[in-house]
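Hi V.,

Quick status before I head out on leave. The structure for the redesign project is tokenized and pasted below; the design run finished overnight.
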């Protein structure tokens, strides 16, 4: 349990610290980011030590950090402090964002794998910013052929992604 917690701490701490610093800058909150980090990590330890299952410690810590920062800001305002509300609170990814991004990358890679290597090369050259004329010159293919191959490949990728979702 201790080793697992230390591993979770090492992974979560930088994200929590960055979020706390960002919130403090945006809100004018009068506290130290390290205090917020310590409080969040103590809460995480208490939760894990209490037997609760935390599926994604980073997502849990981000949510807890935001809640703690808002609570501290409300407490300061309740005492008559004139801390203005931030124009925009720091955005954070949802708990599922890393999983969604990984799944999207996997689906795109899978769709690209279905395209012939020569056509993939055309797509890569186009994505690198080359014009159709430049691609035609590099590949020694007619411009119309390059254009239709890229168009067909894009359609195939879109169809593949639509089927996957």
């Amino acid at each position: 349990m201790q080793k697992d917690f230390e591993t979770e701490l090492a992974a979560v701490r930088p994200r929590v610290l960055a979020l706390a610093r960002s919130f403090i800058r945006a809100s004018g909150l009068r506290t130290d980011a390290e205090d917020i980090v310590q409080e969040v990590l103590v809460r995480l330890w208490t939760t894990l030590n209490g037997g609760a299952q935390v599926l994604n410690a980073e997502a849990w810590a981000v949510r807890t950090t935001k809640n703690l920062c808002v609570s501290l800001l409300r407490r300061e305002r309740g005492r008559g402090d004139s801390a203005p509300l931030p124009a925009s609170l720091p955005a954070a990814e949802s708990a599922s964002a890393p999983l969604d991004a990984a799944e999207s990358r996997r689906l795109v890679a899978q769709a690209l794998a279905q395209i012939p290597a020569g056509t993939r090369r055309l797509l890569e050259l186009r994505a690198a910013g080359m014009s159709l004329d430049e691609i035609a010159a590099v590949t020694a293919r007619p411009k119309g052929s390059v254009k239709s191959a890229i168009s067909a490949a894009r359609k195939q990728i879109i169809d593949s992604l639509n089927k996957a979702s």
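Above is the designed sequence. The first helix runs from residue 2 to 27.

G. will cover questions while I'm gone.

Best,
W.
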